[in-house]
Amino acid sequence: MRLALLATVASCASWLAQPGSALTGPASCTTVGGAATCSGDQSAGIGAADFDQAAVGTLNVNALTTDIAPASGVAAISYSRGGGSITINTDLSQRTIKTTGITDAVSASTDGDVTINHAGNISSAGGAGIYVTTTGGFFGTTDIRITSSGTIDAYSDGIHARYQGPGGSNGNIVVAHTGDITSRTTYGVFAETRAATVSVTTLGNINAAASGILAAADFGVTVSSTGNITGAVGIAAYSVFGDIAVSQRGDMAVTLDGIYIDNSSASATVVNNGNISAGRNALFIAAGDSISITSRGDLTGRDTGIAATGMGVGVNSVGNIAASHGSGMYIVGQAAVGVTSRGNISATDYGIFALMSNVPGYFATVDSNGDIVSTAGEGIRVQSHGGFASLISRGTVSAFADGIHASAPGDVTVTSIGTVSSASGNAINASGGGNLQVTVSGGVLSGALTGIRLDGGATNTVTIGATAKVAGGLNAVLATTGNDTVNNSGIVIGNVALGGGSNAFNNLAGSVFDSGATVDLGAGNLLSNAGTLAPLGVGTVGTTMLTGDFVQGASGRFVVDVAGHAADRLDVTGTASLGGKVVVDPTARLATTTTYTIASAGNLNGSFTGVDFLTANSFARKCAAELRRQRRAADARSRAAVVYAARQCQRQCAERGGGGRRSADIRRGAAGGLQPAVCVGRHALDGRPDASLGRDCDRRAADDLQRHEPVHGHADRSLPGRAQQSSAGGWRDGIRSRRW
């Protein structure tokens, strides 16, 4: 048991502060039967000289007229018996105990039960506030019960309760204190027993040099603290065979651990309602049986926010967690492990690490709803060595290694709703011996290696939602030996390699697959496209090599970037069954009447149903601004051209009409724009309209106007040429184009 050193520290401080004999105060104590009562002026202290401590079992101190402030080195109340029980009842609510020198303020020791009921403030300059020990008898039962209220300011322990009997005997310890406690060198509350239990309840702030509360017992510990705690350790609890339960309501600022529990073979329960800032671990729990942790507050630790290892571990954390040199949560259970986190986590190593390490058939689960940042490790790691693993992430995960990593010998399920990124690994990495299921309901996945990696598995499914985007430095999706199916309703960018097995990539209606240089589904496996397929993405000309078969349905769109004599291309090792449309994206001015090979396949079925041009394509976007500028400049030129055409028409009319009266009108269209000039010629002799003269002049004026108009060019919709069998056994589809 990790108690020896702590007990030694407490003992050393306390043995140095063993009380001297109290001096008799001005007022004497009275004894009736087995009870002594001390009242009036007891300023010099109460001790062996005031009553027969061997014969008296109960000491009552009340109705004092002065504070108890004895000489240096003298205890305020000292009660020691060689045998029998001790009860001390003190009502000093209007008075104060103050001791100086090396001594305890209130001390009691015997081999029987000790009960202390105290009310009043205590100040001890050289020892403990309340110091109680019992030795017990062989195989006997002796208990310590301390109920106190008031402020305690002590040099060593604020309250010290310790059973020092032989190993076969036992004594329960119960401490309940209301009021603030200060210990300048050791513990706020120190309670230790052997073959029994300890219960500590405090209501008030604790400021201690060592632990705010230290409680240790072989057969169980219960601690309930309400108030803020500062010190080296907030609450430390130890047990060998019994359960430990710690409840804390208040903030902690400590140099080592906030709540530290060490239980060799039983369970541990922690309920924290407060913020904890720790120099080592905010919560550290080790137990031989189950562990339950509920934390509502922000946790900050140098090493970990929550560290727990036990048989089975359950964690429910609501609040932010920060670990500057370690993991936000590091949870290990030999059986089931379940972690629920509702808050942001910032860590150097793992954001959340959850491991089920031993028992076959059990599970490890993580449910995270918050943002996670890991600067040197994985964002979330859930691992089961004996059963299945399940992970849900609803926030943004940013990690140096894998963003999300889940593994188990059985089934593995991963659901991601937020953005996940990895600077050196995979956004999502799932591995196992059972079925692997990865669902990306929203957000962006981006990994330096892959967006989604599947390792092993049996029947594996990747589902990408309509608002999700998946990309990777080497592969968007990578799989190994399982039977893998990818159902994409969102956006996938990059290479895909599904390894061996029976695989499929279904690009569903409304989706986009910006395929990389390689899409390896395996021979005979199918890429079906009911959405948009764009080799290397829109705006980049390149070739995608597809290992497998290809089918494009009626709603499918095959987007082809064209630049000069180069165009996107899909090379299919198996069979290609065509349907839907080809959508051309000219990235530069097209050459006149150019034929492009946009796909090849070992076997060809069907044909594309039509060709469209991509609206707002990259080249058109570049041209749009220039065209708008040209139109604005041309507007003024167009008006001038109309006037010019009218004058020309007048001249021509005069020449054709033999010098008679002629007119040329400039007319406005229905939309208010200028129309080409219209010449209305009239014969000089009879003034009748000359229609042929007008038509001729209109034609000349329109031709003249056209020469002054800006060219708003456009590419014709190219119709698909007939599929032609190439010499290599593939096919090509000709696309005719016209210069812009």
Key words describing this protein structure:
disordered N terminus; 740 residues; disordered C terminus; mainly beta; 3 helices; 9% helix; 3-stranded antiparallel sheet; 67 strands; 62-stranded mixed sheet
Question: Could you characterize what this model shows?
Answer:
The chain has 740 residues and is mostly beta strands. It is 9% helix and 49% strand. Among the domains are: 18-136, no CATH class; 618-708. A hairpin with a 2-residue loop joins β57 and β58. α2 packs antiparallel against α3 (691-708). The longest helix is centred in the C-terminal third of the chain and has 39 residues, at 618-656. The two termini are 86 Å apart. 53% of the residues are buried. Mean pLDDT is 84; it is low at 1-25, 656-698 and 704-740.
- Based on CA atoms alone, the radius of gyration comes out at 44 Å
Unreliable runs: 1-25, 656-698, 704-740
The level of helicity is: under 10%
Number of helical regions: 3
Structural class: mainly beta
Label the overall shape: elongated
Largest sheet: 62 strands, mixed
Mean residue pLDDT: 84
How many runs of DSSP E, i.e. beta strands? 67
What is this entry, summarized?
This protein is mainly beta and 740 residues long.
Protein topology:
Blueprint (H helix, E strand, L loop, with lengths): L3 H13 L13 E3 L2 E6 L17 E7 L12 E4 L5 E14 L6 E5 L3 E11 L5 E5 L9 E6 L2 E3 L4 E5 L9 E6 L2 E3 L5 E4 L5 E6 L2 E3 L2 E7 L3 E6 L2 E3 L1 E7 L4 E6 L2 E3 L2 E7 L4 E6 L2 E3 L2 E7 L3 E6 L2 E3 L2 E7 L2 E6 L2 E3 L3 E7 L3 E6 L2 E3 L4 E5 L6 E6 L3 E3 L5 E5 L3 E6 L3 E3 L4 E5 L3 E5 L3 E3 L3 E7 L3 E12 L2 E7 L2 E14 L2 E5 L3 E6 L2 E7 L6 E4 L4 E9 L5 E4 L2 E2 L9 E5 L1 E4 L4 E7 L2 E2 L1 E10 L2 E6 L12 E8 L3 E4 L4 H39 L6 E3 L12 E5 L6 E2 H18 L15 E2 L5 E2 L8
Parallel strand pairs: 2-3, 3-5, 4-6, 5-7, 6-8, 7-9, 7-10, 8-11, 9-12, 10-13, 11-14, 12-15, 13-16, 14-17, 15-18, 16-19, 17-20, 18-21, 19-22, 20-23, 21-24, 22-25, 23-26, 24-27, 25-28, 26-29, 27-30, 28-31, 29-32, 30-33, 31-34, 32-35, 33-36, 34-37, 35-38, 36-39, 37-40, 38-41, 39-42, 40-43, ...
Antiparallel strand pairs: 1-2, 57-58, 63-64, 64-65, 66-67
Helix pairs in contact: 2-3
